[in-house]
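User: I'll paste a sequence; please echo it back and then give the predicted structure.

Assistant: Echoing your sequence first, then the prediction.
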Amino acid sequence: MDDITAGKPNAWSDPAVTEANKKIQELVKAGGFVKGFSSISTDSGADVALLYTGKAAMTLGLPATYQTIKTANPQFVKDGKLGYVPFPVVEGGKGDPANVVGNPTNFWSISAAATPEQKQAAREYVKSDLLNEKYAADLLAVGNVPPVEGAEDAIAASDDPAYYSMIYETAKKAPNFQLSLDQALAPRGGRQAADHAAAGLPRRDHPRAVRHHHERHDHRLRRCTCPQPEPAPAAGCSPCRRW
């Protein structure tokens, strides 16, 4: 993942990439995805609706998944129908199962074009206005978990302490946090990564063919070099990202 996000040559040729594509196709053949579709809209909530209407058994989604369900079908949560489990460990994998990968959150970015004084002011703003007790409480109120130390008491007093504690403890204990590639790469690269991954679903492209798609466009999958942001590690450029 580090080599891919850094844009290193032949990073997509790592055997782990081919193995990941094989696992995806195993899920396809096992009926793990909606037949005939390579993706379902997240913006409209259509993907999550499959879960709370009983048409899907499991979903792998964003933090907004929880918020969407609580808004669209709060009784689903109140009745204890929403469960959550750690992602299954891949046998023979080299990574640490405690690592967090996906989109549980994103990063704040500071412009690389800013002066040292402006950068310092931005850092102070993040600390004083975005990591304070009130902001943390506001996050919990709308279904988000604040990324701050010592939030245990606030979480315990929230409307769903079990869920929030699971998210909080998972993040707190994680040795490493890696965004999904469609978020970690520059906008064009992120879209291409998602498109090439989808190529392995309905058409069942061979795993090596999917890897070849990535390698062919590797020069486009590098980080954004626009002068505006100074992204945190593994983060893309927030101002120019297409959500």
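Residues 106 and 179 are 8 Å apart (CA to CA). The first strand starts at residue 100 and ends at 102.
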